[in-house]
Amino acid sequence: MLLLSATAHAMLLVVQSKVSIAPADTALSAQTHDFSPATPLPPAHRRVPTNATRVRNLTALGGILATVLPTDVELMPGVYSRPDSSNASANVVFSTAHRLWSSELVGAVLRVGLTYNMKADVPGIGATGAQIHGLKFAGRPPDGALGQVSVPFSGKHASSPAAYLSIEDCEFDGEGVADAAIFAQANDGLVVRRILVQNFTKWGLRIDQYMGGPHNFITRQIELSDLDISQVAMPRCGNDDGRSEAGLWLGNTARAQRIRVRDCGWMGVWTGSNCFGE
Fold first, then answer.
1. Residue of 210, 216, 206 lying closest to 249 (CA atoms)
2. Which of 265, 269, 272, 141 has its CA nearest to residue 201?
3. What gap in Å lies between CA 234 and CA 268, rounded to an integer?
4. β-pair type (31-34, 18-21)
5. Is the pTM higher than 0.90?
6. Cα(109)–Cα(91) distance, rounded to whole angstroms?
């Protein structure tokens, strides 16, 4: 396990090697120790709650997400996109701690993004927040939404809105045009596990405090595990002078394990802002 923290830029290098150690007894054969990094666990299907409400299109999904009572929602296999081309890529915004489940692993494909903007007066702000399980996100989110899943800052400090969001067993494909898979400015208790991220232009994951006011600090640990991130680069690598093209961008301290980052235009992992050691 690795506690990711620093106050400056950092590059993560994954090195695979084997070291042979000769034992004291030369009659014994040399012992080989394998220091290859642990492979991230892939996304896996999770059992959908039996009382989940089934939906088959974006209209039905948006209707449930607009309600104020937290609900388990089962997304049946298919492509979820807007029927009208004039607003085809607009993110679906919701403020309640709903729990979204794909009926089949990455069988539900969202060609729109989700923006989770929890307010303190909405049910569910206590021990848990929204949950996203087994979905696939593809394509470009709308102008103004930097991530296929966005968690904007909308309160006085980082722990007030969008707390405790959990994203597990999902796939994100930016198709070479989207900025980021996950862009989170409000990070308290954020959990991201077993996700596959590829083909983005600026960040795989950007988990960074809101920078428009005083420095903000989380109260519940961010947990990251089993992230497989690759191919994060602009059409012309280096065009953003090191301000993006990072597989994992962390502006808050996070506990992380089994993170694999490859093929990024500028850096594998960036840490800074309020990413402090303990």
1. 206
2. 265
3. 14
4. antiparallel
5. no
6. 14
Rounded CA separation 86/27 (Å): 76
User: 97 is written with which tokens?
Assistant: 């701690």
User: Under a CB-based contact definition with an 8 Å cutoff, are residues 144 and 190 in contact?
Assistant: no
Average pLDDT over residues 264-274: 89
Query: Locate tokens 């968690």: which residue?
Result: 151
What is the mean predicted confidence (pLDDT) over 14-30? 42
pLDDT class for 15, splitting at 50, 70, 90? very low
Do the Cβ atoms of 141 and 148 come closer than 8 Å?
A: yes
What pLDDT shows up at residue 20?
35
- Contact call for residues 209 and 187 (beta carbons, < 8 A): yes
d(Cα 231, Cα 202) in Å, to the nearest integer?
10
Assign 87 to helix, strand or coil.
helix
Q: Are 258 and 225 in contact (CB under 8 A)?
A: yes
Instruction: Report yes or no: 72 and 103 within 8 Å, Cβ to Cβ.
Output: no
